[in-house]
Design a protein that fits this description.
The protein is an alpha/beta fold. It has one domain. Helix content is 44%, strand content 10%. Strands 2-4-6-5 form a 4-stranded mixed sheet. A hairpin with a 6-residue loop joins strand 5 and strand 6. Helix 1 packs parallel to helix 8, helix 2 crosses helix 4 and helix 6 packs across helix 7. The two termini are 38 Å apart. Bound molecules: zinc ion (ZN). Zinc ion (ZN) binds next to helix 5 and helix 6.
């Protein structure tokens, strides 16, 4: 059954919120990704001054001042590496870094038509945002692409480690896709890990990675190798799960990913109840519906006239 109503999701979310009012929120650590093994996560502190949940959340405008103030740092560990220069030429460390934080926070913590930047962006007063206080982008020579971790001192201070060797590799990427495009996309993905909830470290890793790539997808940093296709399962992660979440966002209502992320703040992750509480269906049923939708003609999958045209075309071709 289709439930393309954000109201439905909202009411589910509010009910979840009420159940979890006494739960302690914590900016639980998150790290990922490609190959380098990050250090063990450390316990975190509770986020600062979060709004008290209410039954009827009053939307507020989300000016940049509504988001947490985050100190951004850049650390270049090898100035002699040729990719360091490549990075500096393609990434305005002050402006681009701050802009990407804004891109990520808006997509994780507001309901919005992100395709239209002029849209006012309501943020329910119950919204909880992790208490991340700083993000340090560290460029160093290492295997893999990038990963995010809490710093040794305090998990509210995040580190994004980005591989210089990898940047060297993407410098000769495909035509029409630049090193700058890739840097923005990878940093965007890693920044999501700095600000997303992870169900007190119990969340399915595929969902964590899917949310990160959904933000990257929604923000338009799509690399040429991404394909909207059904992988082996919904939680394969990365763009596979990112496109699945994009479908949920489009069919179950704008703000679906917001609601998923908020639910990952309030409770531990139990796959059966998590999805049913939010969407009234199991994630496997949602996945099946999504994979079926990929088989339908593009643009108007449920348009009867289009179905008829396809049928006619098949019959004509069959008789030719
Ligand atoms: Zn990741």
């Amino acid at each position: 059954m289709h439930l393309p109503k954000s109201e439905t999701i909202n009411s589910k979310y509010i009910s979840l919120n009420i159940h979890s009012m006494s739960a302690t929120s914590s900016a639980t650590p998150y790290f990922q990704t490609m190959s380098a093994v990050p250090p063990e996560p450390t316990p975190s502190q509770a986020p600062p001054s979060l709004a008290t949940p209410t039954r009827e959340p009053e939307p507020t405008s989300t000016k940049p001042s509504d988001f947490p103030k985050v100190k951004l740092r850049l650390e270049l560990r090898d100035l002699s590496h040729k990719s360091t220069d490549l990075f500096l030429k393609n990434f305005n460390s002050a402006k681009d870094f701050a802009d990407l934080v804004d891109v990520v926070l808006k997509r994780l913590y507001t309901f919005a038509n992100h395709d239209d930047p002029t849209t006012s962006l309501p943020m329910p007063s119950t919204t909880k945002i992790p208490g991340t206080r700083s993000v340090t982008l560290i460029l160093r020579d290492m295997d893999g692409v990038a990963y995010t971790t809490g710093s040794d001192i305090d998990n509210d201070h995040k580190e994004i480690h980005l591989s210089l060797s990898y940047l060297n590799h993407v410098a000769s990427a495909k035509a029409g896709y630049t090193a700058r495009d890739e840097i923005l996309g990878v940093v965007c993905h890693e920044l999501v890990h700095c600000f997303q909830w992870n169900a007190k470290n119990t969340c399915n890793g595929g969902l964590i990675e899917g949310i990160a790539d959904w933000v990257r997808l929604n923000a338009g940093f799509v690399p040429p190798h991404w394909k909207k296709e059904a992988g082996k399962s919904w939680d394969t992660g990365y763009q596979n799960t990112g496109y699945f979440l994009d479908w949920i966002e489009k069919t179950r209502g704008t703000g679906s990913v917001y609601v998923i992320n908020q639910a990952l703040c309030h409770q531990k992750y139990h796959e059966v109840t998590f999805w049913k509480d939010l969407f009234g269906q199991s994630v496997d049923d949602l996945w099946t519906e999504y994979t079926e939708s990929l088989k339908k003609p593009k643009d108007s999958p449920d348009d009867p006239s289009l179905k008829m045209q396809v049928r006619i075309k098949k019959e004509v071709e069959g008789h030719s």
